[in-house]
Amino acid sequence: MEYNFSNKLASLKPSAIREIFKSLSDPSIISFAAGNPAPESFPIKELSMISADIFENSPVTALQYSLTEGYPALRQVVADRLKTKFSIGRDFDSTVIVTGGQQGIELTCKAFCNEGDTVICENPTFIGALNAFRSNGVNTVGVDLEDDGINIEKLEETLKTTKNAKLLYLIPTFQNPAGITTSFEKRKKIYELAKKYSIVVIEDNPYGELRFAGEEIPTIKSMDTEGLVVYCGSFSKILSAGMRVGFMCAPEEIISKAVVAKQVEDVHTNIFFQMLCYRYMTEWDLDAHIETIRSLYRRKCNLMLDELDKNMPDCVKYTRPEGGLFIWCTLPDTIDLSEFTKAAIANKVAVVPGTAFNCDTEAPSNSFRLNYSTPSDEQIVNGVRLLADTVKQFIK
Amino acid sequence: MEYNFSNKLASLKPSAIREIFKSLSDPSIISFAAGNPAPESFPIKELSMISADIFENSPVTALQYSLTEGYPALRQVVADRLKTKFSIGRDFDSTVIVTGGQQGIELTCKAFCNEGDTVICENPTFIGALNAFRSNGVNTVGVDLEDDGINIEKLEETLKTTKNAKLLYLIPTFQNPAGITTSFEKRKKIYELAKKYSIVVIEDNPYGELRFAGEEIPTIKSMDTEGLVVYCGSFSKILSAGMRVGFMCAPEEIISKAVVAKQVEDVHTNIFFQMLCYRYMTEWDLDAHIETIRSLYRRKCNLMLDELDKNMPDCVKYTRPEGGLFIWCTLPDTIDLSEFTKAAIANKVAVVPGTAFNCDTEAPSNSFRLNYSTPSDEQIVNGVRLLADTVKQFIK
Questions:
Q1: Measured between beta carbons, which residues in chain A are less than 8 angstroms from residue B66?
Q2: B contact residues 316-355, partner A, Cβ 8 Å cutoff
Q3: CA–CA separation, B278 vs B249, rounded Å?
Q4: What is the ipTM of this complex?
């Protein structure tokens, strides 16, 4: 049988990261390609104790169908924490639980976009978001990132000239893949532009809690007096990625559309782990736990930067992140990125080529992404040397 | 701010069942409206023991990001069980894990349908599937159900005359809401029609394991020599509904599209509970557990039928199911369904009106759905009497 697939999926390729992830079954390859939290960051003992107690005292609630909006007690503590710690959430907002931050992005796209509409994105940006938009038949238009965030003039030009632009998708804090944090000045300008052009902003913030240097910057959502911002957060990088629990805070009117769309995707998020998150947040010290993760990533990031400083030829430039999971490296124009990535794999070290994060899939790139949260210290030391050796092969 | 929602979501209402479910916070109302498995059906002790062991021996795998396709060991045992027990799955098929059977339906729709395309359904049918199609901007066209399954002549007529019909969605076994099981003869005819008109069939089978009377009938998927059938199954009714773990078995080419679509919806299904399912299937006796659930539902169904026989005026007709979770009742034409449903709630008993399950949301109905798996025995006895009293109010 010859299948006639939908236009929106016919041309969509599986994520390059996921494909690289799969090819890493070879244990001799050191991977800087993943974006996984460090295994040491999971509070295993605490989750295990809570889990045993749930099976003992409330197993039926934890195993039965539940509400699409999420476990009410968890919604409440998440909303409270967003409000008190980050000034996020006004009277018109509502907070619901989703199956990872990824689902929040996809549901927002479904709520606002018809096939053929456009989402404006930072370029480069998170491939999972790009593919969420594409899989809904939506175009993506990229606006270049600078060291302090999106180029504001180009953003306004794009807002002015793009027909049917329905959403502006941003990762203002420790951006994936570029590691860039948008300045407070630019955040204010972005919000003003959103207001001026009446466009809804998705503020994706999976890494916001992982700051290990520099000063906290207010989120765009915290400035949202008009109900323009959909904020997507996640427990993936602070408790467990595999449980798939995230949250959205947005105006109630938007949330009610997202909930209808969520209902038909998965009915609700795994309720057992929603209860686990609630219990962890109310019975243990989440902030103290986050502090230990920050220390861990500060150390790992510094180790990778030290090794890059020591080993990498000067022609390679790289960011010095203040948080998050990634360092963004840029090769000189003389080196072909695709050849380089292949040579690195042959040398037993894997990175993600920047082309994977481009809004325009045909656009070139001479950057690649390094992750320091997943590899061990030994792998960081050895892997950076292998990578530096690979560069030297190309410039000798 | 005035929001401009997508056409596909702008008109979509939250599921009537979910809304009724929410209104049931009044504990004095007896609900026959849900479709929840009986709380006694969860193997709590076994899941608790396995869970403790996972936290002890493989916590990192259980809490870390995983593959979109699902936990490989679970995929294998699910595929093996489908093959050996139900003759499902050929060389060209692949089995993947999804976040409940609901996600399998939605992903298949995304893989095949552009906005404006049509899915042909049994009428009435599962509201979660109808809304999955609608939320993707897809039209639904219903073909009447008869006592032994869909009307074959009308199905062929619909296949012949419907432009851009991309999928045929069916629940051949213990249909929701009508409780009807499609005969073997009709299943063969449906498969022949699918072949003749080159249309892909979604065979949704969440209740197939819950037969407590009559003879097993082969699935349509077991006849699938040409790769025309997407089979959706679930652990919701045999292990736990709240964990949201289901599976799809379909030709590899379709599965690869569904996996791309799944990746952008939730990255992967909760991995801890995938491991829990795998361990339960390999270390405990799933078939024996299913046998106890069947006995439980046989008893509950018979109790409800006995009470209906004793109390319900003759003018009300109802099905005598051989499995599944539902009895379908039909009122005489003289009673207005909407008035009846309201009066029932006033009398402290809730049912789902048949209109909720119509492909054409404006079409009338004089039927309603009763569920016997969720209420206690006492609630079944008292609730049926309240319902019979409600009918008598209308015919006096």
A1: 242
A2: none
A3: 17
A4: 0.96
